[in-house]
Amino acid sequence: xxxxxxxxxxxxxxxxxxxxxxxxxxxxxxxxxxxxxxxxxxxxxxxxxxxxxxxxxxxxxxxxxxxxxxxxxxxxxxxxxxxxxxxxxxxxxxxxxxxxxxxxxxxxxxxxxxxxxxxxxxxxxxxxxxxxxxxxxxxxxxxxxxxxxxxxxxxxxxxxxxxxxxxxxxxxxxxxxxxxxxxxxxxxxxxxxxxxxxxxxxxxxxxxxxxxxxxxxxxxxxxxxxxxxxxxxxxxxxxxxxxxxxxxxxxxxxxxxxxxxxxxxxxxxxxxxxxxxxxxxxxxxxxxxxxxxxxxxxxxxxxxxxxxxxxxxxxxxxxxxxxxxxxxxxxxxxxxxxxxxxxxxxx
Length: 347
Description:
GO terms for molecular function: monooxygenase activity. Helices cover 39% and strands 14% of the residues. The protein is of the alpha/beta class.
């Protein structure tokens, strides 16, 4: 498996919508981890160009992350919300698309990469078999034991366990508003439950920002740690200046559907607080709020833009990605050594 060949058990989270760049993916791969190219919101042709650009920068293995398409939302679920937004903000067409899923799968079968991961759902067994035949591993993002069992049964090679601490969109297969009343599983609890329920390598994701965090995930049974927010301030990342600055503050995060119609974690701001009852309608609301988010970024208005970030965002350093990987690796090794020498031997 690709995980067994990495020089360090650090995986770059894809971070679609801006932060993901070929330069960032290549830097993480070249430092011994596994870089990822985010395919979300790109056309298949644009993804092909990103893959080619990444290959031009590294000879190492890297992955591509796909958004599994959701079902279209009925118009009456979101049209009132969009009209209300239009009274105060520029809005776009609340449209549905499949994020070019079929064309991207065809591209990755014809031009394979080391790993294809998915978010928001699990490919069919037939799709996974086609990717396997092309020499590609398939990793599926899961947030529960039920999702994990589904992914393993479909043929997934590894699971990305996304804890509630993670920044950006929750990777749930079905974004059910009935689940809002229950607390989503934190990473440590999720790791323990998955280790007891399924036999598959697990990549831990959510709130990991330091070497000690990486060590904790490995100690809990993960084969590797996936970090996203920790890389947002790297010069190779395409992070907007507004977000680079915002994540340095000790601002609380919260889950919201206000910007996209799907629950996601970001820095708490006025737009989130003023729209706590945004409907479940992804990607329709994502496209509707595109113009207002773009305007907010241009104006430097942090109160009207999605500032996706995990709960440990204030720990994100301003370092080149390769240096960050090496620092995380060294610190994780020290943390594991300390834990073994100072705790285990006392029993």
